[in-house]
Specification:
This protein is α+β, with helices and mostly antiparallel strands. The protein has twelve helices and 19 strands. The protein has helices at about 25-35, 85-95, 110-115, 155, 190-195, 195-200, 295-300, 305-310, 345-360, 375-380, 385-395, 405-415, and strands at about 20, 35-40, 55, 70, 75-80, 95, 130-135, 145, 165-170, 175, 180-190, 205-210, 215-225, 235-240, 260-265, 285-290, 310-320, 335-340, 365.
Length: about 425
């Protein structure tokens, strides 16, 4: 197979065959014939969620062909191999926008929504909440169409690749908007704890970056250009130059800062398309807790700072609004995400995750499905009210288990 590992280099796929069909008929043929397979997106996961005996990639389809904008319905539909950066270029020409973006524009839309990947903002749902409809090829080769409001739709969006190959996606869109991005440095911990809700609500999207030292390193505030953004931030100083979230790295790959207005797609991500995102060779973990537990969870992590710092590149704290999607990490609750970018020292990181997950367990922490974590299906099932319904949906939609894999059995579905 010519694509044998993920982008960070910490996971090697066990598949020995990679299919790249260029048509919908081709996808149906591959899916119906393969005993076990999974769809491979942009390889930005850090675990085995996308692995199987055979892999299916949709990157042979032209990402921008057959994009359909429906201005009456305020939606855009497109092929399942499309990445956010590619879609943003089309929407820019149409004067349209998505409600939010993740840190990286490099990721595939299908992979992001399948894992409840998110941007930030107290009023912003994760990227999956923008899904209005899906086209899915099931393990029989059948084409399944599902739209918002229909039975099982809320279980089919964040589906972890367990239901089939998503070949077409329809997302909500809105008129394009400009964003200003400002970075503030050296926020005191007392200010974060004393003004947490105000801090996280001071912009359309807010990210707190810390290495768990004497002060909080940076706060990135992304404000819509038609709204007033903060000029000062509880004693934190505005950065005089552009910054990278990881202290000491060149900020060139990052989106422009210092209040310079720019299109939504050029400011909401932290990193620009066309550059290596983040640090490149790294590991990532992330845990989402109910917003009501945010400060207690942050305190619990801070108590482990001495263990965390030697392995950490940076930690990011963000907010995500509640949604109704069954397996979304923000299902039924406004959430705060605590995201860790680690050095690529996997054995040591996994040893630390034992302690970290134990410390976060009292706060109903849900791990990001695409990141590195240890919790098993039995641990996670009680965290999701519709977990049993999702397992039944998987069994009904994929009765021969073609899209199941070891990772799903271990961490989501349970089983031998």
């Amino acid at each position: 197979m010519d694509t044998d590992g993920n982008w960070a280099g910490n996971y090697t796929y066990r598949a020995r065959r990679l299919h790249r069909p260029a048509t919908l008929d081709g996808v149906q043929e591959v899916v119906a014939a393969a005993p076990r397979l999974h769809v491979l997106g942009s390889r930005h996961s850090f675990n085995g969620i996308a692995d199987s005996a055979e892999l299916l990639s949709l990157d042979a389809w032209n990402a921008t062909q057959d994009v359909v904008v429906d201005r009456v319905a305020a939606t855009v539909s497109f092929g399942g191999g499309t990445r956010y950066g590619e879609l943003a270029e089309v929407l820019r020409d149409e004067g349209l926008a998505l409600h939010n973006l993740a840190s990286l524009p490099h990721i595939s839309v299908a992979g992001a929504i399948a894992t409840a990947t998110h941007g930030s903002g107290v009023r912003n749902g994760n990227l999956a909440t923008a899904v209005a409809a899906l086209e899915v090829v099931t393990s029989t080769g059948e084409i399944l169409l599902v739209a918002r409001g229909e039975a099982d739709f809320d279980g089919m969006v964040v589906a972890l690749g367990a239901l089939g190959a998503v070949t077409r996606i329809t997302l909500d869109v809105e008129p394009a908007f400009d964003v200003r991005q400002r970075v503030f440095e050296d926020l005191g911990w007392s200010a974060l704890y004393g003004h947490f809700d105000e801090l996280m609500s001071c912009g359309y999207s807010v990210s707190v970056f810390t290495r768990w030292r004497e002060t909080v390193d940076q706060v990135w505030v992304k404000s819509r250009a038609d709204e007033a953004g903060p000029e000062d931030l509880f004693g934190a100083a505005p950065a005089a130059v552009d910054r990278h979230p990881i202290i000491g790295l060149d900020p060139t790959p990052c989106t422009p800062q210092r209040g310079r207005p720019g299109l939504w797609s050029d400011r909401l991500p932290h990193f620009r398309m066309g550059f290596t995102p983040s640090a490149g060779e790294e590991l990532q973990s992330e845990y989402l807790v109910p917003r009501r537990h945010a400060l207690a969870a942050i305190e619990a992590v801070q108590a482990l700072a001495g263990r965390i710092r030697p392995l950490l590149l940076v930690c990011e704290i963000r907010t995500v609004a509640a949604d109704r999607l069954w397996m979304s990490t923000s299902s039924g609750r406004d959430s705060v995400a605590i995201h860790f970018t680690w050095q690529r020292r996997q054995a040591e990181v996994e040893g630390l995750l034992v302690e970290l997950e134990r410390a976060l367990a009292p706060f109903e922490a849900r791990p990001h499905w695409g990141k590195l974590f240890l919790a098993r299906a039995a641990d996670l099932a009680p965290c999701y009210d519709r977990h049993a319904d999702f397992v039944r949906l998987v069994e009904r939609t994929d009765p021969r288990g073609a899209f199941r894999n070891d990772w799903l059995d271990r961490h989501v579905l349970g089983g031998p």
